Fold:
Amino acid sequence: MKQQTGIGIFGGTFDPVHFGHLRTAFELYHTLPVKEIRFIPCQQPVLKTAAYASPAQRLAMLQLAIADRREFTFDDREIKRDTPSFMVDTLASLKQDYPDNTLYLIIGMDAFNEFEQWHRWQEILTLAHLVVVNRPGNDPNLHADVMTLLTQRSCHDLTKLMQQTSGLIYQQRVTPLMISATAIRELIKLQQIPRYLLPENVWEYIQREKLYIR
Ligand code: ATP
Structure:
């Protein structure tokens, strides 16, 4: 039985959610000192092109994907908010709701490589630790400024990570799964079947809602 009080925060577009997200979350749940992994779909992505499915559809797919998992939760605060989905605002509001829980913000290496473009990124590090996971297929070279940040903040020791409530960057290797939402959308557009890249009930929902066909 886990006796941990951290919360893993997994933000993203989830357009759609897939096994790259879910396996990563599962492995991190079992590695990090967290009581849950909380998925937070954004209203509109800040650094990427607009999402294809609506916020309500992306949330519905996420709910289907995690329905039977008690360790996975979802949070609709970004979808309900009428402002851009800046992670710094999300973390500040989570911190108000959960002042006694350390927040572990999970991001893939591709997202981390753009971290210094995130809105008020320095503040993010006063609210949470970062947990950076490998992602196959992305450029393995880190930008110089991100590399410097990593050198300054890197922590390899989970015990040390737990002694602080924010500000450190922990890298965790997860099973490399070369799955992306972009590739899934492209398969569907080409009338191919994305089965085994995402949960079957999510694929069924996509077909019912006729998502990603053009
Ligand atoms: P898209 O292809 O539309 O850009 P995506 O597959 O990258 O989407 P997002 O919802 O944008 O999915 O990703 C949310 C978070 O999950 C990001 O931090 C991203 O790096 C991470 N992530 C996505 N896919 C994987 C994967 N296969 N392995 C590890 N991390 C992943």
The chain is about 40% helix and 15% strand.
